[in-house]
Amino acid sequence: MIAELTRTATDILADERARFVAEHPRSVAMAKAAAGVWRGGAPMHWMNDWASPSPIFAAQGVGAQVTDVDGKLYDDFCLGDTPSMFGHADASVAAAVADQIKRGAGFMLPTASAVIVGKLLAERFGLPLWQTATTASDANRAAIRWVRAVTGRPVVLVFDGCYHGMVDDAFVVLKDGASVMKPGLLGQVHDLTTTTRVVPFNDLAALEAALAPGDVAAVLAEPVMTNCGMILPEPGFHDALRALTRDAGTLLVIDETHTISTGPGGYTRAFDLEPDVFVLGKAVAGGVPAAVWGVTAELSARMDAAQARIGPGQSGIGTTLSGNALAMAAMRAMLSEVMTEAAYARMLAGAERLVAGLKGVIAARRLPWSVVHVGARVELVFADPPPKTAAAMRKALDHTAVEALHLWLINRGVLIAPFHNMMLVSPVTDDAAIDRLVAAVDGFAVAMGDA
């Protein structure tokens, strides 16, 4: 089946590329101009990772829709790959940011909003003490430095296929059962496998064996694997993960940057996880670069002790822009006015509609596909049943079919996350947009069958 899909997907891609170029003259022209001033033709290289022959140049985003420079309107189910999960140009965030920028963006000093944001974070996520960062990558780096300082242990354990931003320690995968650095990793002069251990998600026996030497400072984990195709935890996995880490004297860092789609308190509150460190980025400031990480009171005390033991000097943790006034204003608006119970109720209802629609297409067309979701985050997987490990997901992933689907959707006015078949439903995504997405996927399935 995969070989057949790849052949037909190649045919579809050729047609859809020609259609894109014909219908997006201004984006194509801007891409050519950008190539003269931006290496790779875009301000950030992953802006070229969309399935379109050249980047779509955005003009504006309002609610759950984006308009490009060619005047084309898109139903946006990518939402900036999460930062705009609650919709573009939210009025509350826009007002807060506009007010703060007139009074200064950053002072390297706390503001009154910082106190309020800290209280809101503690109330929402359950951990009492917090720090800020500019991105979730920075927050994860800080957490890793601290857990090593506190425990005196060198090793961090991650799950195969994980995503924790630009964290060097997480760029390790399994290949033929052995830990290796990720293919394509640039400029890395240290062997990351000496201080990073990697095991398959959902494999408790492998996890227990990896913790057994007693040298693992922390497990860094997404509650649900979200970047290699979505992989849900098996029943009891998180309870066992927490028990095994405690028995091994290993700290647990939960990165909720993607799984905040689960509910107002993330996957952690919805499923009563008990992390020592909680990391959140992207959506927390509504698209303004910001992240936060919280710790338990017990871990905070151990951090104080480690700092006293190490003595004065430069910790190497933190950046000048972290916790700036603009980010604090945006987070205050998000936590108090946007990321509400009512907003999540709308998101979750929309996601259920999307899941039902996609499953209907799969059943009607008798496709070997499946749908996985966590809260408002939905993944269409070209395999049935959905794989339970990253290794199995890699075998099932048909890159050509994924690219063909993405470009098919783009040409029909729908955006989903460019890296895999991930779709986000926002509180302002209407039913008609969901139905258009489902209809477009159905059309793709028909085209694949007819090609």
Automatic annotation (TrEMBL):
GO MF term (any one): transaminase activity
Gene3D superfamilies (UniProt xref): Aspartate Aminotransferase, domain 1, Type I PLP-dependent aspartate aminotransferase-like (Major domain)
InterPro entries: Aminotrans_3 (IPR005814), PyrdxlP-dep_Trfase (IPR015424), PyrdxlP-dep_Trfase_major (IPR015421), PyrdxlP-dep_Trfase_small (IPR015422)
Keyword NAD set for record: no
Record's keyword terms, sorted: Aminotransferase, Pyridoxal phosphate, Transferase
Cofactor: pyridoxal 5'-phosphate
Superkingdom of the source species: Bacteria
Pfam families according to UniProt: Aminotran_3 (PF00202)
Coiled-coil segments on the chain, per record: none
Protein family according to the UniProt entry: Belongs to the class-III pyridoxal-phosphate-dependent aminotransferase family.
Protein name: Aspartate aminotransferase family protein
Lineage: Bacteria, Pseudomonadati, Pseudomonadota, Alphaproteobacteria, Caulobacterales
